[in-house]
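Researcher: I've got a protein sequence and the SMILES for zinc ion. Could you write out the 3D structure of the bound complex as structure tokens? I'd like something to compare against our soaking experiments later this week.
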Amino acid sequence: MTDWKLPWSASCQCGGVKMRVTQPPMIALACHCRSCQRLTSGAYSLTLMIPETGFEVIEGAPEIGGMHRAELQHSFCPRCKNWLFTRPQGMPFVNFRPATLEDSSWVQPYAETGAQDKLPGAVSGAKHSYPEFPPPSDYEMLMEGFAREGAKPR
Ligand SMILES: [Zn+2]
Ligand SMILES: [Zn+2]
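Model: Sure. Here is the predicted complex with zinc ion in place.
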């Protein structure tokens, strides 16, 4: 059993929202899609998929922002406006933004999505690359691969 050094503490830029991760991520992803470029104002987004039961907001009250879509709730700090996590409705996981971790130094994406929109010079270091999203039949392989050889806290 791998030591993930859980639990992990995370916080927005202003410290108004604090979060805790208590279960290992299912996978680490980078997404180069145009929506993620706008949401991050950067080249790509980073995501750790965390089982819903392994993620909690322990302080503050995140608000919905971004696309304001019921099926994909982008959650932000109401004060500093950091993008913190996204809840895909009906799915048993949260797409958590690992840049908010107290220690994000180990985070490396295992797969990247939306690569057809990748900006010039943007390199995620991911082992697997998809022009859009992985076909559903690839997820099991990706999650097994991440559990086996994905980056973990040092
Ligand atoms: Zn904040
Ligand atoms: Zn994206």
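Model: The helical segments are 34-40, 139-149. Residues 12-14, 16-17, 77, 79-80, 82 surround zinc ion (ligand 1) (CB under 6 Å).
Researcher: Great, I'll pass this along to the crystallography team.
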